[in-house]
Amino acid sequence: LKRYVTGLLSEDDMEVVTVEAPPLDVPTGSKGVVVKNLYVSCDPYMRNRMTHHELPSYIPDFVPGEAGDLVWGMTGWEEYTVINNPESLFKINHPELPLSYYTGILGMPGLTAYAGFFDVPKPKKGEYVFISGASGAVGQVVGQLAKITGCYVIGSAGYDEKSKFGFDDAFNYKKEQDLEAALRRYFPEGIDIYYENVGGKMLDAVLPNMSLGGRIVACGMISQYNLEQPEGVRNLYYIVTKRLRMEGFHVFDYYDRYYRFEEEMAGYLKEEKVSYVEDVVEGLDTAPAALIRLFTGRSVGKQLVAVARE
Ligand code: NDP
């Protein structure tokens, strides 16, 4: 419906538009479903809904131009998803920014970076920060937030061209024979905060390079996910001698802060204080290969799959 109608209804009062699929609007606790419409009905009562009534009618008036909210949340690798708990969806308040950002910097990985960096180690200006997995969905955001905080930031990633993202410096961990020595080169005064995305050999190399009282955010350990037997960590005793604090953290504990985060991050994006690199492949069929790229190090930036543009 384009506008409320007076007199004889004409075709021009209506238009066919393409919109993003709206979220289910069902009360909390009830079950929602998504249906695919095969036939739709034309009924006389619809004309009544196209008139604006001052007093409530037996059925609500249509709202001209009404479309659903854009949302993000845990859906599936599919074109339509049944959402049984619509309260788990988040409304997208900044559709003027690229919608794909809601899979990354404005969604779960962005909140992971934000909460994991600000809440866990409580960073201070001038501190030395090291980020592994620095070009990824989470890592590139952590590095930029650390720069905004006034920290000195070094990242590591798997290809030379991946390794900058506006940090003070970065290195390709695959090219370093001795990771521990590489870190000593980049952090002669020690690492105050290590944002851990990788684990394994990298964690082992980081521990001796931490400064006294340093903090490690245990966000993820991707180097271990495909191993049948996790690697051991030789240098764990440095946690004692260097009085380190290593803290595990999960983004699921921070969703109550999402909208505050969204506002702040959208502001940074609009002011161009942060940017975001994405690696977008097209079509659901490419999703399995795209997921594998995360573990072979092929992706640059946030890996995602465009399923439908409208
Ligand atoms: P990324 O976008 O960083 O993708 C994964 C990247 O990890 C790859 O591109 C690859 O980059 C690197 N990688 C893969 N295998 C290895 C390896 N064996 N050794 C070193 N690097 C490797 O992923 P995300 O940013 O989404 O996630 C980063 C980390 O954060 C993961 O560990 C993930 O599990 C964790 N995470 C934790 C959350 C929490 O709440 N705690 C929430 C979300 C994510 P490269 O070319 O550099 O090797």
Q: What fraction, in percent, of the residue positions are helical?
A: 10-25%
Can you write the helix and strand succession as a string?
Answer: HEEHEHEEHEHEHEHEHE
By secondary-structure content and strand pairing, the structural class works out as alpha/beta
Give the N-terminus to C-terminus distance in angstroms. Answer: 20 Å
Q: Based on CA inertia axes, which overall geometry fits? A: elongated
Strand content bin: 15-25%
Q: What is the number of strand segments?
A: 10
Strand order of the largest sheet: 5-4-3-6-7-8
State Rg: 25 Å
- Could you name the CATH topology of the largest domain? Rossmann fold
What is the residue-mean pLDDT, rounded to a whole number? 89
Describe this structure in words.
Helix content is 22%, strand content 15%. By secondary structure, the chain is α/β, with parallel strands linked by helices. The chain has 2 domains: 1-86, no CATH class; 108-253, 3-Layer(aba) Sandwich (Rossmann fold), CATH 3.40.50. The strands form 3 sheets. It has a 6-stranded parallel beta sheet. Strand 9 (278-282), helix 8 (287-296) and strand 10 form a beta-alpha-beta unit. It is elongated and about 80 Å long. The chain starts with 44 loop residues before the first helix and ends with a strand. The model has no long low-confidence stretch (mean pLDDT 89). Bound molecules: NADPH dihydro-nicotinamide-adenine-dinucleotide phosphate. InterPro entries: ADH-like_C, ADH_N_2, GroES-like_sf, MDR_fam, NAD(P)-bd_dom_sf. It comes from Oryza rufipogon. Homodimer.
